């Protein structure tokens, strides 16, 4: 998951699974997170970035091994990313529960990781 995709005010978003929710968090926080990662790139105009650009960069930032998937380790790192404000007292059990939840909802082919396509598809039914 980019972001990954989001990754954000996760403690509240992930632990309560009933009703509408986002597995990747608040879009404003996603945009800020991406902006922080890209700020040193000369000529980058953040005002021209689209929501799709944000999603792509978020996925790419957290796809550490660049295999085109977000696995459990990459999801864990995204969920505890201090820049996203996600390390606020989350217990290991909560993080594991969050990862399991994301994989249950978004891993369409049950291979234990989230592909770019699965991540994009999840955005369509996780719009909050």
Automatic annotation (TrEMBL):
Domain of life of the source: Eukaryota
Residue ranges of the TM segments: none
Record carries keyword Magnesium: no
Pfam family, one: EF-hand_7
Keywords annotated in UniProt: Calcium, Repeat, Signal
Keyword Repeat: yes
GO MF term set: calcium ion binding
Residues in EF-hand domain copies: 50-85
Record's protein name: EF-hand domain-containing protein
Organism: Rhizophagus clarus
Higher taxonomy: Eukaryota, Fungi, Fungi incertae sedis, Mucoromycota, Glomeromycotina
